[in-house]
Amino acid sequence: MAARTVVLTGRVRDATGNTTVTATTVTVQDGSTLLGWCPPDSTVTDIQRMATRYPQPRLMRLYSAPGKGIAPWSSGMLAQVPVDTVLHYSFKDWSRTTSPALIRDWLSARPAARRGVVDLLTLDHEPEQQDSGDPTPAEYRQEWLELLEALADHPRRREVWLVPVFTEYAARRNNAWWQDFGQAAAFDGVDAVGFDIYDTGYERYRTPVERNDFALAQARRVGRPLVIPEWGIQRKPTLKSGAAYDPDGAICAQAMRDNMAYLRAQPDVPDVAWFYRGNCHLDATLTYPDGRTYVRDRERAAFVDLMR
């Protein structure tokens, strides 16, 4: 389900012939859940390689690592995004003194050609990791309040959704998660709630309900849509006992199809992106625990079908 900006114009003429014209801008939702991709790294080279494999994606998720600031629209990674592709962009760096003005300038510089889509913006993606420059819980909440305040009255505010993004498996297992981080999802001005969702720590593939119930519950708790900027399922060839489980990826491919069918049946999940990295890289030659190599042909075929 892609969000786009529409300008509604009304013209009224009274009995004496005087005409008044008024216009308003609204955000509307289109179609079903979009499935896009996140490249292995948000470099121009990796983005271009992904665009060769999967041209004209409907959704692209990119990120700036700690210390890299806010990426400009005119060059580098963001210049690779087609104007009609929804962008979900994440960044880590925030300074109370300089970042509010920088992020306002960034939104002001958003190319006019992109006004047919609504982009998503995330500060401090996956703060639960508490590494790679992550803020403390108190710092995280404060930085989000400052971001929301900085853009609250921006004339082009409707062109972006502000989306805090969390780690599903970490949040699910931490009783203090809501108090530490999750409450930011309820802040005034937040447009959607994001979770990165993997089957980390599970012996078998989870069902769609098992995989998504926590994230959906948190988003619905605050009455906002759920977006999934990183999704991936690592192939599980054997169980812990060593017994064969999914040696050829057929079960994983079906799990991918079932998961997207479930999400697309929900009324409030507009965007999902597959993280094309590590064991979720669908074109790489990977290695089983016993040393044999394999490629994820079945899963890649499922992904191609689901992207359509």
Instruction: Output the CATH topology.
Output: TIM Barrel
Largest sheet: 5 strands, parallel
Note the gap between the termini: 13 Å
Low-confidence stretches: 1-6
Instruction: Report the CATH architecture.
Output: Alpha-Beta Barrel
CATH superfamily: Glycosidases
Q: Using DSSP, what is the number of strands?
A: 13
Structural class: alpha/beta
What does this structure look like?
The protein is α/β, with parallel strands linked by helices. The chain has a single domain, classed as Glycosidases (TIM Barrel, Alpha-Beta Barrel), CATH 3.20.20. The chain has eight helices and 13 strands. The protein has helices at 44-53, 99-108, 137-151, 168-172, 177-180, 208-221, 250-264, 297-307; strands at 2-13, 19-30, 34-38, 59-63, 86-91, 119-123, 160-162, 165-167, 193-198, 226-232, 271-275, 286-287, 293-294. Strands 3-11-10-9-8 form a five-stranded parallel beta sheet. It has a four-stranded parallel beta sheet with strand order 4-5-6-7. A two-stranded antiparallel ribbon has the order 1-2. Helix 2 crosses helix 3, helix 6 runs parallel beside helix 7 and helix 7 runs parallel beside helix 8 (297-307). The radius of gyration is 21 Å and the shape is globular. Mean pLDDT is 93; it is low at 1-6. Residues 105-281 form the Asl1-like glycosyl hydrolase catalytic domain.
